[in-house]
Amino acid sequence: MYKLAFFVPESHLESVKSVVFASGAGRIGPYEACCFQVRGEGQFRPLAGATPHIGKTGALEKVEEYRVELVCEDHRIRAAVAALVDAHPYEEPAYDVWRLSDLDLLPRV
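User: That's the sequence. What structure does it adopt?
Assistant: Structure tokens below.
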């Protein structure tokens, strides 16, 4: 099992989540489209050669964005990331992927 977290502007929040869910990510037991999201502020400065969706080359840009976190099964993670990158409005979307511990290997409490 993996955890996928990504940052997306509010204008594309629902559309990006939709394609990531359609890839099979965000399923927990008999539930689908499961995620946690929180609003925050992201910032970036496009460098020479960038073609930013928002902002201008060389200028610091601050954008209201959402951090979305969800779980994803091993065999679906590559499709989930591909769907995220394809649907995201930024040319370089920010995201994290990390493997979760297998609960069967942890001591019982």
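Helices lie at 13-22, 77-87.
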